[in-house]
Each structure stands twice: as structure tokens, then as C-alpha cells.
Backbone:
């Protein structure tokens, strides 16, 4: 059986459009456009290095976000006992 916190986090991620709000998605689109513009200036080697960096940074961001969300759930559980 899956950890109940993981189930809750996965459900939140699946429904992120319901609570993140339009401003998040506007900013996300702007960031993607800026990234695409920047990537056009890269050489092949720079592009490969940057994509490797992006993968590692995304993994780091996701790990931090999941740890923070997990702690928030545990704290809420303690508060509402």
C-alpha cells in the first residue's frame, strides 16, 4: 500500500490547475519563452550542458518541494490531533 502522504501529494499535483491560479501559469509561460530564446543562442555543447543542469535542478526542486509538502502534512496532522 502506498504511503498516504504520497497519495495526497500525487493528488495535489494532478489537480494543480485548480489551486495554482492563472498568474502561476502566465509566469510559467513567460519563463518557458525566455528559456527557448536563451537556448537559441547556445552552441550544441552548451545546450547539452544546460539540459543536464536543467535535469539536475528540476530533480533538486522536486525533492525540496516534496519534502516541504510532506512536512506540512505531518505538521497539520499533529496540529489537528
Residues:
Amino acid at each position: 500500500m502506498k504511503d498516504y502522504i504520497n497519495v495526497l501529494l500525487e493528488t495535489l499535483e494532478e489537480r494543480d490547475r485548480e489551486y495554482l491560479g492563472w498568474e502561476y501559469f502566465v509566469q510559467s509561460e513567460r519563463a518557458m519563452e525566455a528559456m527557448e530564446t536563451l537556448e537559441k543562442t547556445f552552441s550544441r555543447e552548451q545546450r547539452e550542458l544546460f539540459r543536464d543542469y536543467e535535469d539536475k535542478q528540476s530533480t533538486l526542486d522536486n525533492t525540496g518541494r516534496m519534502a516541504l509538502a510532506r512536512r506540512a502534512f505531518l505538521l497539520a496532522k499533529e496540529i489537528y490531533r
